[in-house]
Specification:
5-stranded parallel β-sheet, mainly beta, about 240 residues, about 55% strand
Length: about 240
Amino acid sequence: MKAFALFALSVVATAAMAAGPTSPSSITIANGAVSIQTATIKNHSVVQNDSNARNTALQNVASNAGDITIKGYSKQTATVNDSNLTNKAVNKDDFANQNVASNAGKVEVTGSGSSEQSASIKDDSTVSNKAAGGGADALQSLASNNGKVLVKGVSKQDVSVNESTVANVANGANALATQNLSSNMGHVTVAGYSNQTTSVSHSLVLNKATGANSHAAQNIASNDACNEPRDPCPTCH
């Protein structure tokens, strides 16, 4: 991986007919809805989120997290090209959670549904999420739904990794590492269709938990009822 010196980030987020409450735990877009979220990270850029000891690192890129609603459509696209996207928590019992073109935590959509999620990682890029220390949790989602989502019809999920690295690591005893690529995890409904595609070429996709009694769970173009020994996202259900 080459050195990164230049930072350039283009993020476009548009919502049609926004209405309703806008607190962190209740984001409604309704009334004709739509909501299009696009993040483009390219040309030797670095997007980095680190937490200090005994803390939580949360990073969302073209994603919805925490009791959203929308009511029809919602398109999420993230492109990482020749760049570095990282999220890291550094101590015991820390929680590192990174969402890229994903939905996490009671999202919904409905109103005839839809929801298209796409993540493209290419040209010597790195997308990584790391939690270090005993009891640490590392949870990373690319073009995925995690935790009580719903949708009600269609939902297309696509991840492409080309000559790049996607890594999720939890270090220490009792650590938990969970990584989702174009997948549904934990109480997701959809109700009709759902197309899940992951393409990996000349790349490394890594999910690792190290230490005694640690656990690593990785979903690629999959559905997972979240039957893990420890809930990887206690705030998402």
